[in-house]
Amino acid sequence: MDLAIAPDQTPEAAPLPILLARPERQSVPLVFVSAHSGRDYPAEFVAAARLDGLTLRRSEDGFVDELFAAAPSFGAPLLAATFPRAFCDANREPWELDPAMFEERLPAWVNTASARVGAGLGTIAKVVASGEAIYQRKLRFAEAERRVRLYWEPFHTALRELVDEIRRQFGVCVLVDCHSMPGNCTAPHPPADFVLGDAHGTTCSPLVVQRAEAALAGRGYRVGRNDPYAGGYITRHYGRPREGVHALQVEVCRPLYMDEARMARLASFEAVRDDITALVAGLAGLDPAFDER
């Protein structure tokens, strides 16, 4: 499968690696975020990889940005990374790095001991979702610094500014962190079509979770909570209910709408997108007064 190859860019010429779809008017205290649906693959990354394009793409949360594309029509922005997760993961701390991936010793302040690093899935991933090693050779730490500066930081700067702007306008902000999950991820438990993560009740008001669950269950979906996905860096970092910021992670089961092996949309894609639009509408109906500070 051909990749969308992003042209090599100098730091001065590189465009912001995000897409921000804003509503005509911010009318609800919501922001939707897709950190893992990016599919613009830098040419130098593809050249350094030992894997083919399709294998690299299987780390994506395929088409999630498209599933939630209706957000601006309900008065909420949608922020999406254009860069792929296998290249730089915006749902990690900025410096979660595996020392075995680099030629030189890493600075002492780098987080080399997180569970994500141990799994090979740090800020700069060592492996793709299937567990295969990405790179032909070790990297220089300067390459990790460049990716964090040119990709991770602009993404989070934009997200932080949106959250602050919405909270100033409404007194509260609800961040919906949009992801997808493989079809076998809830086995051996009963299968779930969607998993809602609030870090076990710590990142958002239960009223937000209840509204999301009701919208999805009303469409006939099986909805789980926090198992096996309770919320990643974005949900846990930005979710501060006592400060008026509520973050909810939404995981969509990929076989509902896409062929995981071919990274292709299924005929059911539009129907699932319509159902997710109903979820967006349900959350947009929240009264800002729900905040329980």
Features:
single chain; 293 residues; alpha/beta; Aminopeptidase; 7-stranded mixed sheet; two-stranded parallel sheet; 11 strands; globular
Report on this structure.
The chain has one domain (4-91, 149-286): Zn-dependent exopeptidases (Aminopeptidase). The mean pLDDT is 93. The protein has a 7-stranded mixed beta sheet, sandwiched between helices. A two-stranded parallel ribbon has the order 1-4. Strands 10-11 form a two-stranded antiparallel sheet. The radius of gyration is 19 Å and the shape is globular. It starts with a strand and ends in a 9-residue tail after the last helix. With 293 residues, the protein is an alpha/beta fold. α6 runs antiparallel to α8 (269-284). The chain contains 8 helices and 11 strands.
Q: Summarize this, please?
A:
This protein is an alpha/beta fold. It has eight helices and eleven strands.
Nearest-angstrom radius of gyration? 19 Å
Q: Please tell me the CATH architecture by its name.
A: 3-Layer(aba) Sandwich
What is the CATH H-level superfamily? Zn-dependent exopeptidases
**Might you state the CATH topology name?**
Aminopeptidase
Number of contiguous helices: 8
CATH class: Alpha Beta
Biggest β-sheet: strands ordered side by side in the sheet: 2-5-3-6-9-7-8
Describe the largest sheet: 7 strands, mixed
Instruction: Tell me roughly what share of residues is in helical segments.
Output: 25-40%
SSE string, helix = H, strand = E? EEEEHHHEHHEEHEHEEEH
Q: How large a portion of the residues is in β-strands, by DSSP E?
A: 15-25%
Distance between the termini: 49 Å
